[in-house]
Amino acid sequence: MLKTSTTSSFFLSLVKRRINESEVVFFGEIPIFAVLMSMEDYDYLFKIVLIGNAGVGKTCLVRRFTQGLFPPGQGATIGVDFMIKTVDIKGQKVKLQIWDTAGQERFRSITQSYYRSANALILTYDISCEDSFRCLPEWLREIEQYANSKVVTVLVGNKIDLMERREVSRQRAEDFAESRNMHYLETSAKESDNVERLFLDLACELIHEAKQNALVDNDASQMPGEGKSISYSTCCSFS
Ligand SMILES: Nc1nc2c(ncn2[C@@H]2O[C@H](COP(=O)(O)OP(=O)(O)OP(=O)(O)O)[C@@H](O)[C@H]2O)c(=O)[nH]1
User: Which superkingdom, per the lineage (predicted)?
Assistant: First the structure.
């Protein structure tokens, strides 16, 4: 009996208070542990996965967006790499989990397992490399097989700073993207052209869709930012 009352009074005296960015648990007036909340402080969380042939510039796009860098001598990605960036979209904090996958064939079985829970895929090719464009149907088959059927896919033609070496015309890429119901954008990780726009437009669209879904289906198990389908009629545009 004594044990029971002691235990219950112990739990009753545990109080959780929010102090600045931290949640602090007090026993009486004594703080016993603190959890830093800033890591979890966001309105939406979206997972974006970059795929495409080796050497098209996936890692450089991610580095440019997350760190503002174009690092020379990037080695090939081994398996999968991961970075986070939180952005502000119209006053809402959006945490983007960005997964950079290896383009090399030998890592395909590892990278495929990352498609499933992606909210968005950035399918990248190199505008100065015809081969990387020719492989797109193969990548789209992978997407069909392994990704959520409602994932949003953006086709990105990277390295537009190499205009004089262009092998794939913009028109051809746009037609291909349209025929496969994808957005299309051309970027340069080197010159930082359209890189912010790529990720911010994507974030904006993912928010729109998460809100739409919250209205349409009231399924409590589906949290915003988790496995949502995307509508293209939004405030943001890739065109
Ligand atoms: N000129 C130019 N070169 C770029 C651009 N983006 C990437 N590169 C170069 O292309 C090469 C490959 O870039 P990565 O970012 O490693 O390519 P990746 O697609 O991540 O390659 P994997 O990790 O093997 O799949 C590097 O030498 C980069 O410096 C760009 O926008 N313009």
Answer: Eukaryota
